[in-house]
Amino acid sequence: MGASNNRDPALPLLGRRERVLLAAIAAALGLLLFQLRGGLHPQAPLEQMARRSLELPVALANGRPTILEFYADWCEVCRSMAPAMEAVETEHRGAVDLVLLNVDNPRWSPEIERYGVNGIPQLEFFDKGGGVVGRSLGGRSQLELEAIATALIDGTPLPDLAGIGTVSRLEETISPLAGPRSHG
Per the residue annotation, which of 50, 60, 67, 78 is the catalytic one? Predict the structure, then answer.
């Protein structure tokens, strides 16, 4: 009888070299996935900073200026601004507080409403006494964030940057029934 083309089903379909190659590819893909998911620190950088930040009432009452950021993990601008925020936090630790609140967390709904959050990232700036001194909507570079933090620490006016404005307060004497078209 001649050689048979029938393969014995008990024999492995892959040779040793193919199995080693597949194992190496699987290990490389596993390592890549591990790195993409944050390595040993699986939380997003924003979430890490949020967990380190003080509670907002504590930050507003401790005699240091505060930067409050409303963010979301899915927000590309928030994520791209995170390293700059982290650098400012590190540079000015103990001189300015950074508080991050995730807009997707229902716990922060009262704050979202109080500060009229309608876009992210939204930054609220508070002086050393906890008073609101300004607001920023949209991404900020590290240089801009440094300038803002320095102004807050020094108690000087916020830098004149596009998208930063002061926040006005309604006077107590205005009637609660007065609408935007009211003249009285």
Answer: 78
Query: What CATH number is attached to the domain comprising 101?
Result: 3.40.30.10
Split at pLDDT 50, 70, 90, the class of 159 is: very high
pLDDT in tens, 29-71: 888 776 665 555 455 678 888 889 999 999 999 999 999 999 9
Q: What is the mean pLDDT of the chain?
A: 83
Whether 75 is a known active-site residue: answer yes
Q: Tokens 């949209």: give the residue.
A: 138
**Domain interval for residue 89:** 45-165
* Residue 78 annotated to the active site: yes
- CA distances to 7, 12, 21, 59 from 16, rounded to whole Å, are 17, 9, 9, 62
Among residues 50, 56, 75, 81, which one is catalytic?
Answer: 75
94/149 Cα distance (integer angstroms):
12
